[in-house]
Every structure is written in C-alpha cells, then in structure tokens.
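Section 3.1: Structural characterization of target chains.
Under the original work plan, the team committed to producing a structural model for every single-chain target entering the pipeline before any wet-lab resources were allocated. The record below documents one such target. The sequence was received from the expression subgroup and is listed exactly as submitted; it comprises 207 residues.
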Amino acid sequence: SAPPPEVPVEVETVEPPAEGTATAWLSRDDADDLPWHVQQRTSEAMAKVIASRSIDADVVIATKLSMVQYLAGVDGPLRVYDALDVESQALDQIARLRGSALTRLHAAREKDVVERYERQLGEFADLITTVTDADAAGLAELSPGMPIHTVPIGVEADRYDLLWAPGEPRIAFFGDLGWPPNEDAALLSAELRQTTLEAVVSREALR
C-alpha cells in the first residue's frame, strides 16, 4: 500500500548491471564466494547511492539476498534483511523436483554457495525479518544467534472483491518472479497444491 500523503517519498533509480549469460555462468569458478545472482546485482553506483542515502536514515532494509551486500556500506542505521524465503532451500527443491535441465543444473550448483552466503548474514545485517515461522527457523539454523522476527504478509481481501464473482474460488499468488527460480517455485507450488484444491473445488470451477 502507498505511504500516507504526509510522508515524503524520494525515489532514486540506478541502472542495473548488464545481465551475465548462461555461458558466463557455466564457465565461472566453482570456488567463487558470491552466489551468481548476487554477483549480477553488484554495482558500484548502487553502493554509493545506498551509502549516501542511508546517512540520515534510522533503518535501512534490504529485500532479496542479492541486495544484502549493500548493507556492508551502511554505518549507523539499523540494518535489516527482509527475507522473502530461505533461498538455499528453494534452490534445493528446484534442483530435485522440477524445471528445465539448465534450471536444475543452476539450482544444484548454486544452492551450496547460497547457503554459505546465508550463513554470513550476521556480517551484513543486524536483524532479519521473514514472512513465515518456517523461514525464520530455516535462517535461524543457518545463522545461530541472529535476531530473526516473523512479519506475516497481510492481505485485506475486502479491498479486492471486484477481482472475483460470488461463488468463484479465490486463489491468489503474491510475490516477485524477477528471479527466474521463483517462477519455477511458484509453478511447483501450484502443482503440489492441485490435488488438495481439486478435493475442495471441482475441476470445472478451477478452470
């Protein structure tokens, strides 16, 4: 939801780095410390903007693991990593369960380096927030002693009545598919829940 009108919002846009190719990823050194998608979001321009804009801030929040790296340049404000999930666990599921051969290979090769990166979150952040208690437990196992709090996503369904006709099943997905494995995870989630949904609602109603 939008902030109250009395709260000033300043937006500064930084051009993202050029995307690496699949060939570049396949040829990279397996000993690289940074996950590929973190490397792909490494930007000197972004680091300068965040360091500058955080000087007068009380709290700086990084959403997505690829943005946590910039918290290292923040000095003073509370540094928060807003975790959308436990990315290493998501990659492990993708590697084992679904997707194209290249997607599964990517997940299998990246999950260990992503897990190592998640174990280092204490070097970047002062606090981690998660959407579910399961994610909180997963990150607590990777980063023992790190302050972690669950902040559930709230959806005011009454505001979206016009999206549905009376009697229709209501199935909503809220999330960001900007990172390719998230799309696979969403499709897998839908497939795993299909049997449960069909037990409650007829197949015709779901079409």
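Residues 37 and 179 are 8 Å apart (CA to CA).
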